[in-house]
């Protein structure tokens, strides 16, 4: 049968199933196939904190959304065009997000009386007209997979577990994806069990062939490659990019990287990734708690390593006393906070720009640190390098505010040329710096950077003592002198405030915008997509995005004051807006959402249009 | 390796230019002087020696040593020192802490440093009181202790620091006393020679808030009858006339003290710090009574176990041994790993 082929410019697919159904893996593989084809991509995994919530229940639903297009895209997409629902719970949990007319592929084998009852369906939605507004494709995924694997030497359980590969095969056929990378992946993944390689490949091909032959799928789609800058790409998540950025910082500084970390969602993947890179001289220590993790990192920095600790909000709270010590010791330290919804345990697998206040202010005493935030998954690489640059050059703790959205989301990354990465080499102190030629003054500053010398243990002649007690200027001796304390507090503030950071750039293609949207961190994509939408309707709007939150760009005040209105969308209750209002006396409009999910471009677009109406 | 050069350091080389500011009569002075006198013996250059402390009276210690030093925050010295030690195996890293710092606010870091066997020499100055905050009871104060925060007497049962360290898998555990310089230095010597964590409890007198806490162990009239001086390979007898001894009665879980005249010589336990089973050292740690009778001092336990530092450095060395490229080449390879595609 010849199938019709239809061209599309963009598609959003959501794979949803039980948390044991392998939806993250399925989504990952589909993304990789799509990347190979050259589409632009953005992905959004959404999974429960429970490793295996009760099977078939709503809390146990895990999903993975992938948006791909023949042009550059900024978000994982607001609403799926296609939902793959592996069971009734997956259908029920995701139906509300689907626009009318969307395709739904359901695994009919799981639509049993018992499974329907688990999620409160009185009758099967496949049998009544409740799904009349959608294009439903009922597929007996499980039984067809088991049937396809009848001749294979695998247990019934293993055969059933291969149903995600059947689904992947079907979707790969529907969207004309190249699948060689998936076959290679299966060979790697099940290298120790060849029978599972064979079974999974067979399940994948059965899904592909099912699409090819069944009349239910009359149309096949194509999304042409996007026009992207020439170069070599890979698809990368924020946590992976951040890890590689830290490895790169070690290479470019010539210093060993020391990571102290305690397992915490959603930051643990950075610990996992860095633990693989010992050949780069990266040491990872899984500490007994968050405090020990940052303490060990600081101890390593004292000894001449690039000390790093990675965590999420609750961990930063525990580390705050040690971060204050690092402020007093004036040693390099990178603190990565992969933010999640709070307070307390909150929603560990859900995103939120929860911790800007804590990063800026969450320490005792006047304890300023530098704060930066990546705007996208691949930007995490460069943000990590920038955090290391500031920490090493200015001998200060730097808090890097990632979040669950960029950490677990992915996008294509144009691989940088290693030689183009910043040179982060540092000079340790080797000679006495006192006027007499023999004394060492551990708090005598470089007049340009205000950084004190980094004299590491092992350096003869520079033996000195540092600590958390207030220190006298230059000598570093304990001091309770009022004037000295006043001077040191102001100097520590100036140290951060005078770090040169790039000016903020404004994107205003029409050049006549009167409203500026200001964001920070992971909202870059949704804000950017919303601004595009607004402009497509013929309206003008300007977008600026903060990477450096402490210190802020020198031109920010001027930029803010040159617009009639400033809108600040945040996934919190207005933490940046408060800072902007206080620092610049600008009456910014704070737009907030704390649902544990990224903004959709559509909701931001509506909000921005409302603001534009009133200018 | 070339022969080590004799550095010819003296106690004076280890004295910093800072004025020592403990209360007059504090036991810390004696410990400081003993350590300054002892350090040259190690023949380790001053710049390769680091003292890391937490918070408390004892934690002022690093300021007075002319080595590298860090006076950190309350309870965290073992964690900070772990990061330093594991990343700088060329250094000799010492932790100075107190009963509140190590056993209360920093208990978690202490036990984990010990179980990991980080190459740290941990000196716990135990004065059984909070001195710096002016006299509250500590986790080693006796039950019923009347202090500013416990006017009706403390309701807390104390820790036995050595039992705790042994339970935390410590590979080296010892105890000594501030006023006995010779003994203190002998225990430090053994600790310094130990590869891995060495935990040394030093009974230290706080003459302001808990004066005389260990008086029975110091008073010439009582000390010989109270103290058990452990010596490796020697039968454990004590008392002014050797009239007491330690035995392991059949059927008993622990060790007990008997009159030497009442037992056969072969029943007397011969001290062996290298016994693998920590139960032996633990039994020793349980001998003292509330009145400090039968207090063993010396090296309780000293067993070989790979240090955390050596295991971590070994993994790094093994991974690096396979590398043939420059770091930049390696990095370029790492960035381009996984599924990549090229757009022309």
TrEMBL record, chain A:
Residue stretches making up the Pyruvate/ketoisovalerate oxidoreductase catalytic domain: 20-207
Residue ranges of domain Pyruvate flavodoxin/ferredoxin oxidoreductase pyrimidine binding in the record: 255-475
Single GO biological process annotation from the record: response to oxidative stress
Gene3D superfamilies documented for this protein: 3.40.50.920, 3.40.50.970, Pyruvate-ferredoxin oxidoreductase, PFOR, domain III
Keywords recorded for this protein, A-Z: Oxidoreductase
Superkingdom of the organism of origin: Bacteria
Coiled coil as UniProt keyword: no
Gene Ontology MF terms: magnesium ion binding; oxidoreductase activity, acting on the aldehyde or oxo group of donors
Coiled-coil features, chain-numbered ranges: none
Keyword Oxidoreductase: yes
UniProt-listed InterPro entries: 2-oxoacid/accept_OxRdtase_asu, Pyruvate:ferred/Flavod_OxRd, Pyrv/ketoisovalerate_OxRed_cat, Pyrv_Fd/Flavodoxin_OxRdtase_N, Pyrv_flavodox_OxRed_cen, THDP-binding, Transketo_C/PFOR_II
Pfam families in UniProt: POR, POR_N
Protein name as catalogued: 2-oxoglutarate ferredoxin oxidoreductase subunit alpha
Organism (species): Micromonospora arborensis
TrEMBL record, chain B:
Keywords: Oxidoreductase
GO molecular function: magnesium ion binding; oxidoreductase activity, acting on the aldehyde or oxo group of donors, iron-sulfur protein as acceptor; thiamine pyrophosphate binding
An individual GO BP term: cellular respiration
Domain of life from the UniProt record: Bacteria
Location of the Thiamine pyrophosphate enzyme TPP-binding domain: 55-202
One Pfam family here: TPP_enzyme_C
Stated name of the protein: 2-oxoacid:ferredoxin oxidoreductase subunit beta
Organism lineage string: Bacteria, Bacillati, Actinomycetota, Actinomycetes, Micromonosporales
């Amino acid at each position: 049968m010849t199938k019709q082929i239809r061209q599309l410019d963009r598609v959003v697919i959501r794979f949803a199933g039980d948390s044991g159904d392998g939806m993250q893996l399925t989504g990952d593989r589909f993304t990789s196939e799509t990347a190979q084809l050259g589409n632009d991509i953005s992905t959004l995994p959404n999974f429960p904190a429970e490793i295996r919530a009760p099977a078939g229940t709503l809390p146990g639903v895990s999903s993975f959304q992938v948006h791909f297009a023949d042009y550059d895209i900024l978000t994982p997409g607001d609403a799926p065009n296609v939902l793959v629902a592996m069971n009734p719970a997956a259908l029920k949990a995701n139906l509300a997000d689907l626009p009318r007319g969307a395709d739904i592929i359901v695994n009919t084998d799981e639509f049993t009386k018992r499974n329907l009852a688990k999620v409160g369906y009185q009758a099967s939605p496949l049998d009544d007209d409740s799904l009349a507004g959608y294009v439903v494709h009922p597929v007996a995924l499980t039984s067809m997979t088991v049937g396809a694997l009848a001749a294979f030497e695998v247990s019934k359980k293993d055969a059933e577990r291969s149903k995600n590969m059947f689904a992947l095969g079907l979707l790969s056929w529907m969207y004309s994806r190249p699948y060689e990378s998936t076959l290679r992946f299966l060979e790697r993944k099940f290298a120790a069990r060849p029978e599972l390689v064979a079974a999974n490949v067979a399940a994948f091909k059965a899904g592909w062939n099912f699409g090819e032959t069944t009349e239910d799928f009359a149309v096949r789609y194509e999304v042409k490659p996007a026009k992207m800058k020439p170069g070599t790409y890979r698809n990368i998540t924020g946590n992976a990019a951040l890890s590689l950025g830290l490895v790169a910082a070690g290479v470019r500084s010539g210093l060993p990287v020391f990571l102290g970390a305690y397992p915490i969602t959603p930051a643990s993947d950075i610990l996992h990734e860095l633990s693989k890179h010992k050949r780069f001289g990266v040491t990872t220590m899984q500490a007994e708690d968050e405090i020990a993790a940052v303490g060990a990192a600081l101890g390593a920095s004292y000894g001449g390593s690039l000390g790093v600790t990675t965590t999420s909000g609750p961990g930063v709270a525990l580390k705050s006393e040690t971060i204050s010590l690092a402020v007093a010791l004036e040693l390099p330290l990178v603190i990565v906070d992969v933010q999640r919804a709070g307070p307390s345990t909150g929603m560990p697998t859900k995103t939120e720009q929860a911790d800007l206040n804590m990063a800026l202010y969450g320490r005792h005493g006047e304890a300023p640190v530098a704060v930066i935030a990546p705007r996208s998954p691949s930007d995490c690489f460069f943000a990590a390098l920038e955090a290391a640059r500031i920490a090493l050059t200015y001998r200060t703790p730097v808090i890097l505010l990632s979040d669950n959205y960029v950490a677990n989301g992915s996008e294509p990354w144009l691989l940088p040329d290693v030689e183009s990465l910043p040179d982060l080499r540092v000079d340790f102190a080797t000679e006495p710096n006192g006027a007499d030629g023999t004394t060492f003054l551990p708090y005598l500053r470089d007049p340009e950077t205000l950084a004190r010398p980094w004299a590491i243990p092992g350096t003869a002649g520079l033996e000195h003592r540092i600590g958390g007690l207030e220190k006298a200027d230059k000598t570093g001796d304990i001091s309770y002198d009022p004037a000295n304390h006043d001077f040191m507090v102001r100097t520590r503030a100036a140290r951060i405030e005078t770090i040169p950071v790039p000016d903020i750039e404004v994107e205003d293609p029409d050049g006549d915008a009167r409203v500026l949207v200001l964001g920070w961190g992971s909202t870059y994509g949704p804000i950017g997509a919303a601004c595009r939408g607004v402009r497509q309707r013929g309206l003008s709007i300007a977008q600026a995005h903060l990477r450096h939150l402490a210190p802020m760009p020198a031109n920010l005040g001027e930029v803010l004051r040159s617009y009639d209105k400033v809108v600040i969308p945040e996934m919190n209750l207005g933490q940046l807006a408060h800072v902007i209002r206080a620092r610049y006396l600008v009456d910014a409009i704070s737009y907030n959402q704390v649902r544990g999910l990224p903004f959709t471009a559509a909701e931001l677009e509506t909000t921005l249009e409302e603001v534009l109406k009133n200018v | 390796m070339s022969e080590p050069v004799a550095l010819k350091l003296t106690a004076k080389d280890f004295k910093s230019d800072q004025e020592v500011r403990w209360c007059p009569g504090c036991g810390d002075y004696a410990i400081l002087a003993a350590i300054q006198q002892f350090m040259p013996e190690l023949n380790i250059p001053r710049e390769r020696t680091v003292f890391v402390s937490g918070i408390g009276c004892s934690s002022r210690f690093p300021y007075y040593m002319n080595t590298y030093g860090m006076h950190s925050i309350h309870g965290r010295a073992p964690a900070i020192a772990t990061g330093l030690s594991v990343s700088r195996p060329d250094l000799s890293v010492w932790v100075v802490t107190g009963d509140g710092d190590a056993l209360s606010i920093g208990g978690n870091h202490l036990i984990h440093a010990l179980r990991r066997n980080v190459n740290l020499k941990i000196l716990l100055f135990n004065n059984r009181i909070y001195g710096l905050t002016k006299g509250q009871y500590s986790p080693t104060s006796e039950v019923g202790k009347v202090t500013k925060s416990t006017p009706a007497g403390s309701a807390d049962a104390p820790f036995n620091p050595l039992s705790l360290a042994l339970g935390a898998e410590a590979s080296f555990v010892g105890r000594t006393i501030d006023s006995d310089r010779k003994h203190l230095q002998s225990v430090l010597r053994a600790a310094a020679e130990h590869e891995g964590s060495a935990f040394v409890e030093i009974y230290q007198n706080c003459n302001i808030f808990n004066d005389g806490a260990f008086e029975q162990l110091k008073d010439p009239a009582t000390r010989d009858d109270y103290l058990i001086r452990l010596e490796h390979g020697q039968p454990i007898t004590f008392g002014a006339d050797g009239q007491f001894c330690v035995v392991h009665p059949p059927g008993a879980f622990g060790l007990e003290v008997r009159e030497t005249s009442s037992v056969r010589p072969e029943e007397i336990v011969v001290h062996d710090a290298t016994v693998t089973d920590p139960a032996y050292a633990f039994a020793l740690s349980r001998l003292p009574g509330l009145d400090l009778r039968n207090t063993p001092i010396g090296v309780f336990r000293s067993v070989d176990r790979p240090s955390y530092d050596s295991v971590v450095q070994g993994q790094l060395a093994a991974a690096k041994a396979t590398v043939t490229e420059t770091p930049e080449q390696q990095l370029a390879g790492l960035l381009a790993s996984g599924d990549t595609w090229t757009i022309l």
